[in-house]
Amino acid sequence: MHGKYRSFHKLLLVFASALALSVSLAVSLPLTGQGQIPRAQHGAASMDYQIKELEKLMLKADVAEAPPGFDPVVWQAFVPEDNATTPERVALGKKLYFDERLSKDATVSCATCHDVTRAFTDQRKTSEGIAGQLGRRNAPTVMNAALLQTLFLDGRSPSLDHQARMPITNSVEMGFPDGESAARAIAGDTEYKKMFQAAYGRDVNYEDIGRAIGAFERTLVFVDSPFRRFLLGDGNAISADAKQGFRLFNEKARCVTCHPMNLSNPLGTDNRFHNIGVSARTQNFELLAKNALAALAQDPSAEKLEELAIGTDLSELGRFMVTRNRSDIGSFRTSMILNIGITQPYMHDGTLETLWDVMDHYNKGGEANPYLDGGMEALALTEQEIDQVVAFLFTLTDDRFRSENQRQMELQRAQAAQKRPFRDDDLAFRRKMAFEERIK
Amino acid sequence: MSQGTRLLSIWGTTFAVAALLSGTGSGGQEKKEEQERQEGQALADSILSQWKRKNPEKASDWVAEEKERHKIQPPADNSALLQSGEQGKGHVYGQYTERDLLMWSRETEKLVVEGSRIFHDADALRSTVAVSCDMCHPDGANTHPETYPKFQVQMGRVALLRDMINWCVEQPVRGTRFEPDDERMRALEAYIYAQRRGKSLEYGKH
Amino acid sequence: MRPKHKSVETRYMEERNEFFQALKSLDRRSFIKVSAAALGAAATRGIVPPTSFQPVRLSALQAGTGSDIYFAYISDSHLYEQDVNDRFVRSLLRAVDDVNQLDPQPDFVLYGGDLAQLGQAKELDLGAQILKGVKAPLRVMVGEHDWYLDLGEKWKSLFGQPTYSWDHKGVHFVTLMSVVEEDFWTVRGMSPMERMKTVAGLDNGVQRPFTVGAEQRQWLQNDLSRFGNDTPLVVFSHSPLYKLYKNWNFWTDDADEVQAILSRFKNVSVIHGHTHQMLTNRIGNIHFHGMLATAWPWPYAPEGMPPLTIQMSRPDPFNPQDGCGDGEVRVHPEGLVDKVYNFWNRNPVTVAREYTVSWGRESLPARPNRPSY
Question: Do A323 and A212 share a structural domain?
Fold first, then answer.
């Protein structure tokens, strides 16, 4: 080839590689890069963008098997009999998960509050639903939700398949008056008709919507954290501080009492309901309970209970609204602590913004109220010990979210350095007694 | 036993026996002799405790003292071993004597009794809240050692008896954990097993 | 092979749905009766938790008709000084908060004994100070932990004579000092603290059995002499006034004599402490009920358990307050009681008078789901 052609060829090569470089840079944006992400309604990332991000995250595993490292017998116990995981069901569930047509004004999908780019939650205090209404509870993450024994923070849903369809008919969240209207909203779509037939051999219907989304959510398993590598023998996987934090977690700080972690149950929750006094700061439980009983006397239906549980002050009564047991007043399910570093803010009402706030809350023994769980005690943890436990907690995040975890850690540390509104050393170090103030 | 204690025990017993003998007779004497025996024993007790207070380092029959304070299950009765079958006479390692059995049971008992002593003593447990094990487990009740190993939910792992002992030492007792081969841990385990004598093993029972 | 079992939640959902269905079929009056139920009514109707309706902190016993007496109790706090053991202090504070929250307020609050752990002045002072926070009138009873350091000097200076009686709405109340022990300490040359620590050990065999004693029995005989057999009688005693398990002094050695004095009365209710557990018994016309402790629960005795006792669920050690709490008692005009055990972090359990009256055939209290080992 003569010279001119060669140099043109070179130029083309340079141009092509520059293009390739810039495209690859654009595509490999960090998960929550600032300002670059296209937005959907209510603060969520756009559905298409989320789907693309999801592609990058997913393990290409056989969906019929337990995820790697899980006890297969225990895993099977969590898959419902009528909803064995198949690729068709997962594909259908994925489509539904990102489908905003499942809300009354077509602005909210599951992914709005359980956003792929925001740790499968929304990282907000409480969630925003149709017409910009704010709910009363913090959205739990969908990551690893497959291993929870009950769903919703008050445990009123017995399975993932049931929970997945509930927000669709909640007036504050997705707003359909009933399941049939939700099914009608998407029944016209021929693609869905085909997918439902392939997945369940039935027409589009409300219960199968829940099942399909449940099947999809069962693939959202994120347990590959530095801590897990440490447990499996890599001594360098976590820092010395984090190791000490793990010791404290199991010993002085008493966390393991409600947040046990092991191979059969790696989530770090006992699946029970405890009153740790978070909402006791702002509620008068006795009064609320009386009101609850009065309201339910007027209209004892299950729907009314749902309304009250989500829409009114009575939501703060937690599990009591489900079981009516006095011992459940103000109780909420123990949160799972996998990926806790990126699922802020914390607690059922999102009032604790950093993990240091969480530690302060526990260190002083929670908030005294007549239904406080007796397992809450003042812990007398020093500043260094608190830092160590927090360091440990930040090692529980899946490696795929490493940069987000790092970012959160820095943000939270900076905020904790400025203010620690829940701190009370007198209570923590047992100089002052918890119920003393109440009986003065 | 030290010289002094031995002397006094002999003296005390002699006095009691003398009281007994002097009261021996027909049925009507029983009450009187019982009274005298008690008086004799009481007197011996008081003299012994006075002596012990004056000589604390020499009062070494702590085993008997601890057994007086707390009911402790005795070790198994091995006397059947003494009636060996015909092979026993020619079995070098199988010839047991009464004194063998006595020495073995004394040693076993001492570990168990030491365990009882620690079990009932908040300071020995290094408790910072003055709580001892017997506050929730009188006579070792409700320790159920026969149910271990079992998955202990709140430890997040399978626990053995000593894991649970350590947990209790750390949390309700707010003391310092024992190393697994610490003599005190061994003694506590020994006491807890001893008190549950006769129960069949049922590991994993919640 | 997948295990086929219903999750707890599925069962709950089913129960709840059934329950709502049933509710819809009740007419309004029955519904109100059910939903605002006094616990006693709920118990007799056999409505069992978890769909229990106890109006929270509305007293589990609604102020009844006629001249029912309603009192609350706190017992067995075993206080150390706060910087020695904060946990017991916190529990007593919590119990005081509980009784202060009761609506309506009880006629009086009974303190069931063992306020201090080692009978020390600082401990008793701390306890007395905390009990001052109780809004309703307070009646106290002494326990062995309060007494044997100084043989009652400090207790008497704080709370007066340990044995006394009073009348209220036609019921005669008697408080006994039923932890009198024969002198075992002089002969052994024990110091006061050694004596106290001996008595403080539940399983310590050196101490002697509890008694009421001849002097107090005589006092009791005299005190009751002016009352006819129909007088409703409630006796407060720290030891159980019957013989359950001698090794742990769940025992009153002269129980037979005391019961003989009480036996002529038609209905006698004995409310006792010391046992830190749910305990029910009946001997003749005497109905015995134990009180919960605030400090810690005792296990059940290996032998001698009264057949009427339905045990409480085994406490979970990971919650230091499990198996503890306080309670309420409604005294009916005829002298029989409904006894409510208000456990912390558990549903309350009621032992209604119908239960002991029927010798355990009716109104059975809730059974334990975690039996003793």
Answer: no
Q: Which of B153, B170, B177 sits opposite A260 (nearest CB)?
A: B153
Do A412 and A307 share a structural domain? no
- C372, part of any domain: no
Structurally, how many domains does chain A consist of? 3
Q: What region, left, alpha or beta, does residue A421 occupy, with left being phi > 0 and alpha being psi -120 to 50 degrees?
A: alpha
**Number of domains composing chain C:** 2
Domain boundary among A217, A235, A255: A217
Tokens of C277: 């557990």
Enclosing domain of residue C146: 69-357
Given C30, C46, C63, the domain boundary residue is C63
- Cα separation, A29 vs A19, in Å, equals 16
Is there a domain that residue C294 lies in?
A: yes
Whether A180 has its CB under 8 Å from any CB of chain B: the answer is no
Q: Are residues C135 and C250 in the same domain?
A: yes
| Domain identity same for C39 and C89 | no
Do residue C49 and residue C112 come from a single domain?
A: no
Local structure of residue C2 (DSSP, 8 states): -
To the nearest 10 degrees (0 to 180), the angle between helices A355-363 and A383-393 is: 130
Q: What pLDDT score was predicted for residue B161?
A: 95
Q: How confident is the model at residue B136 (pLDDT cuts 50, 70, 90)?
A: very high
Q: What is the share, in percent, of chain B residues with pLDDT greater than 90?
A: 49
In terms of CA atoms, which chain C residue is nearest residue A162? C10
φ/ψ of C87, rounded to 5, equals -65, -45
Instruction: Kindly state the DSSP code that residue B7 receives in the 8-state scheme.
Output: H
Kindly report each contact of residues C344-347 with a partner whose C-beta sits within 8 Å and lies 24 or more positions away, as own/partner.
C344/A374, C344/C94, C345/A275, C345/A327, C345/A371, C345/A373, C345/A374, C345/C319, C345/C321, C346/A327, C346/C313, C346/C322, C347/A325, C347/A326, C347/A327, C347/C49, C347/C50, C347/C52, C347/C54
Nearest chain C CA: its distance from B138 CA (Å)? 6
Q: Is C49 on the interface with A (CB under 8 A)?
A: yes
CA A191 from chain center: how many Å?
30
Closest CA to C174 of C186, C188, C183, C162: C162
CA dist A218 and A92 (Å) reads 13
C365 belongs to a structural domain: no
The number of angstroms, rounded, from the C-alpha of C230 to the middle of its chain's C-alpha atoms is 25
Beta strands B157-159 and B150-152, pairing class: antiparallel
Tell me: do A354 and A417 sit in the same domain. Answer: yes
First-to-final CA distance of chain B: 45
CB contact under 8 A, B154 and A265: no
Residue C367 lies in a domain: no
Based on the domain organization, do A340 and A325 belong to the same domain? no
Same domain? For A160 and A286 the reply is no
Domain span including residue A173: 2-217
Do A357 and A236 belong to one domain?
A: yes
Across the interface, whether the CB atoms of C97 and A370 are under 8 A apart is answered: yes
pLDDT exceeds 80 at position C20: no
Choose between B29 and B2: higher pLDDT. Answer: B29
Residues B156, A256: C-beta atoms closer than 8 Å: yes
Query: How much is the pTM?
Result: 0.81
Distance, in Å, from the CA atom of C217 to the CA atom of C211, rounded to the nearest integer, reads 10
Closest chain C CA to residue A155: C9
Please write the tens of the pLDDT for every residue from B99-128.
888 999 999 999 999 999 999 999 999 999
CATH number reported for the structural domain that contains residue A66 in this entry: 1.10.760.10
Burial A126-144 (b: 16+ CB within 10 A, else e): bbbbbeeeebbbbbbbbbb
Q: For C303-321, what is each residue's pLDDT tens digit? A: 999 999 999 999 998 899 9
Work out the minimum CA distance from B131 to partner chain A, whole angstroms. Answer: 16
Q: Same structural domain for residues C107 and C253? A: yes
Q: How far is B200 from chain A (nearest CA, A)?
A: 29
Q: Confirm if C83 and C121 have CB atoms less than 8 A apart.
A: no
Give A-chain residues touching B131 at CB under 8 angstroms. none
